[in-house]
Amino acid sequence: MNIWVVLLSVLFVLVEGVVSKKAGGGGGVNIWPMPVSVSYGHQSVFMSKDFKLKTEGSNYKDASCILKDGFSRFLDVVSLAHVIEGDFSKFNASTILQGLNVVISSQDDELQYGVDESYKLLVPSPQNPALAHLEAKTVYGALHGLQTFSQLCQFNFSSRVIEVSKTPWTITDQPRFSFRGLLIDTSRHYQPLPTLKKVIDSMAYAKLNVFHWHIVDTQSFPLEIPSYPKLWDGAYSIQERYTVADAAEIICSETRINVLAELDVPGHALSWGRGYPSLWPSKDCQQPLDVSNEFSFKVIDGILSDFSKIFKFKFVHLGGDEVDTSCWKLTPHVSKWLEKRGMNETQAYEYFVLRAQKIALSHGYEIVNWEETFNNFGDKLNPKTVVHNWLGGGVAQKVVAAGLRCIVSNQDKWYLDHLDALWPDFYMNEPLTNITDPKQQKLVIGGEVCMWGETVDTSDIEQTIWPRAAAAAERLWTPYDNLAKDPVKVIGRLTNFRCLLNRRGVAAAPLIGLGRSAPVEPGSCYAQ
Amino acid sequence: MNIWVVLLSVLFVLVEGVVSKKAGGGGGVNIWPMPVSVSYGHQSVFMSKDFKLKTEGSNYKDASCILKDGFSRFLDVVSLAHVIEGDFSKFNASTILQGLNVVISSQDDELQYGVDESYKLLVPSPQNPALAHLEAKTVYGALHGLQTFSQLCQFNFSSRVIEVSKTPWTITDQPRFSFRGLLIDTSRHYQPLPTLKKVIDSMAYAKLNVFHWHIVDTQSFPLEIPSYPKLWDGAYSIQERYTVADAAEIICSETRINVLAELDVPGHALSWGRGYPSLWPSKDCQQPLDVSNEFSFKVIDGILSDFSKIFKFKFVHLGGDEVDTSCWKLTPHVSKWLEKRGMNETQAYEYFVLRAQKIALSHGYEIVNWEETFNNFGDKLNPKTVVHNWLGGGVAQKVVAAGLRCIVSNQDKWYLDHLDALWPDFYMNEPLTNITDPKQQKLVIGGEVCMWGETVDTSDIEQTIWPRAAAAAERLWTPYDNLAKDPVKVIGRLTNFRCLLNRRGVAAAPLIGLGRSAPVEPGSCYAQ
């Protein structure tokens, strides 16, 4: 793996000149992730100081201000890095872009899995060159179009305004996979609200669309559960907690993104017992949750009932990984219960997971489970299960052959806490490896990079996520044929994206080095 | 040094219970830096949803909205971490704080070195218990009072509103030193505007008051200089530049803070010659600046003239450190020039520094110079010089004995890029060591922690600065008698401050470990 560290350092020396020149907006298409199709010219237009949103010909009413807020964020990010002070009276009027016309055909703006995310962007509009033109089926496609547009905008140091060079641009785009996730773990370390909101904002820059919230685990239970308020006793401290209103704030954060809430059962649940000790099989066996106790399932039902009021995503994640059942057998009352039912521990694990699945289904959710559930009793899983791969490669192949859906997160390539997994590893990890049947390919709904929280708090979360998550984001968004077959080919463009993140105040780390490495020496952002 | 790493880890285990309990707002005064005097009671008040700024009895007009903006930032930071959703109809009216009355006696709001920074804060006001009361000589004292007030505010998870517990509070406060700085180096790495603005915001949280901008150095020249526009050619890339308007934006950032601009001459100036090669003695000798060339001084004059239009701080920093004059002698025309004037290189270095000082004085500045200038020709320095210590301890003592003013930044304790200088080192570094004469003590105007940029960009600047800079900030603000004599005594309070920074979205690193270390394992913020 570490050969990449050496190799990339050498490559940067070789390509430094090229990359640095490009930094100013020179040759090449600097859009990340790369769209389906892009064409451009050799003109320039400049954004008016009074750049306006128009919606002529659009069917969409924007009652919840999703488009309006998205446009306002667009204006913010393109003008963050420098003071815009150009004198527009000196410009040739024909080079000034007065605004953006957004045409959305669908009136529906429910954010849900599988929503149409396609868009088409023309800068300027051939019909009206004073405007840029963005069209999309849904407002969510339009939001992606705004992200792409923001990457075409660059401060021009001569005119002191925002320039879009290489016009006319014609970009059509849509994602390859419908599920493009980032997992954040708020149990190993509590992540304050501003931290989570900033990460969610930055996800949109890379067109990731699912925030997988690994809310609770062994170490702490930070989220308020009105049905079982003492679960909150499992928080690290009084301050390190989320109210229901805080959770709603994350879900309804301005950057609209799907939130996949996780309840990792029956393992990874020790913290539940701090408030309700009867969930522990015994003082010496504090997880997995007590399979023999009806209260365990009552609490799961209560939590999922509360979840269903705020987490409106089609899926809920029920975990099911790393279940070490050995202490069940060592606990007399659990052991007796197993005996009575003629179950061994593996069967009890299966019983637990399937019963939790039924509870989730009863609350209207489809289910995501970590791959161990499939590996152990795949044929028993509810057909609405999406299997979440993590242990290694080759799992998706088996899952889709069994007719189930799959999300890819193999830890050797897509776990962000693996600091020795470098961005080329993230970039080259192909979810459809060895899956050739188009029907089976469709069952791989996407993938997810995972930011486990053992060594990650507000102080280092952003640089551990970026730029590596961006490398995976292109793999998940861009058509296979447009992806680089050799990651060296995208160094310049990915470097540009990381510098763009930095200009937007996101602490994306250098490309050289292990995950979250500090820059090793002085130098331009475009050469590190 | 590393004994601290071990010791602190052990201490955290020992005090963890205590610290975690305190985290909720329990015992102790959790204000950082510690004020001059604090008294408190055992009541609680709750901030009204419609908490208002009042200025009854104040002489200050706030024409530039300094107070109004500060109050608005105060409201933002106290409500960032959780959604405020309390039902005020359920509260006892006498426990609701309706607003803050700010009484400022001076109408003048010029931000300058030595401005009165004292304040007095009463929560609630004895005269009108529905209000808190803040009085100050100047608006800058009032801004500090707002920072202190913000640290008394904490989200209450029962009532879901902001609580100020332990009222009534009576706090009187003023800084021990008038110069409390943080150096940021934008030459080794370009730091984008949002990065700089966020760091400046966070400085105010710790009551630091001087942003020392080490703008240019050997590696790059990012700032626009209208008088000599080609100096900008020394930037790393087109995008990695600041316009004059960008600089003005930093200076006038909402968090009003003094900006000490540095022009480090004659060494550390290689990048100047990219645009004006004649500033280089030769192709093989690219720094120090050519002492024999009048153009060198013309350019310095031009830069300082441009500086004086935007950098209104009383002082400008002229560098003067690490001047390796050896290649002057090896350059024939410089060598000839030296010979003609009967100067050796050390005399030429002195000649350069003193001439630069005169230019700065002619533009109305007093001067800061790094300590080598004092060490080499201290008796020749203009009496308006402030000597900036960095090489080690014991320098301030000599400087003030010579009647000059001094700023302390000894690298072994106050250089943030020294990752093995831990927060207890920062905390215990006493600027007045061995200076007993009160007259001489007054000549130590303060100190500065230095964030040299060799391995620091947007990805790691915040966690390299915090929490260590906070430890120095208390040393510089708090009266000597209130400072802990043993840093172990402040672990709980400093931990609380670092968690407060995290809650405000500032990437402050754990207290355990070397500078900018990641958390080593899962755990509460209050135990790391």
Automatic annotation (TrEMBL), chains A, B:
Residues 1-17 form the signal peptide. SUPFAM superfamilies: (Trans)glycosidases, beta-N-acetylhexosaminidase-like domain. GO terms for biological process: carbohydrate metabolic process; glycosaminoglycan metabolic process. The keyword Transferase does not apply. Residues 31-152 form the Beta-hexosaminidase eukaryotic type N-terminal domain. The active site is at 322 (proton donor). GO terms for cellular component: membrane. This is Beta-hexosaminidase. It comes from Acer saccharum.
